[in-house]
Amino acid sequence: MRFGMIAAVALLAPGASWAQDGTGDAAAGEEHFNRQCISCHVVQNEAGEVLAGRNAKVGPNLYGVVGRVAGSYPDFAYSDLMMTYGATGAVWEEANFTAYIQDPTGYLREATGESGRSKMAYQVRDEQEAHDLYAYMATFSSDAAAAPAEGEAPAEAEAPSQ
């Protein structure tokens, strides 16, 4: 319940700068990724080139995560809870990505109505950092809708249906 209220208030708060700007700051997201995320994740393209991270294999490859169905990276052993979420057809976009990385288990439980745990233990405590990480991950996506072109207003991100 607490998570739902926080998420609802955060999504509806008109004064939040990230809500007005759409995505966060990709450069700041890169800094955060290099401080925290590289211990578990890598961003590696189809050619095998490591674009970010240290080839870590604890978490799934995040190349193209924005616009990808949740829990769908091939040959990664996701938690049952993430697989349940992915089976709903949920696609990673700003609203669900940022909510998930702030409370992985809580978000998945609320989104699916199921019990269980996410394998991702780390939680991004700062909401702006979550949006910055999304902006950085969007730079590795082939989904043209993932990040607006410079000077353009972003499309409205929809919260996942519950």
TrEMBL record:
One of its GO terms (molecular function) is electron transfer activity. InterPro entries: Cyt_c-like_dom, Cyt_c-like_dom_sf, Cyt_c_1A/1B. Transmembrane segments: none annotated. Residues 1-19 form the signal peptide. The keyword Signal applies. Keywords: Electron transport, Heme, Iron, Metal-binding, Signal, Transport. PROSITE patterns: CYTC. Residues 24-141 form the Cytochrome c domain. This is C-type cytochrome. The lineage of its organism: Bacteria, Pseudomonadati, Pseudomonadota, Alphaproteobacteria, Rhodobacterales.
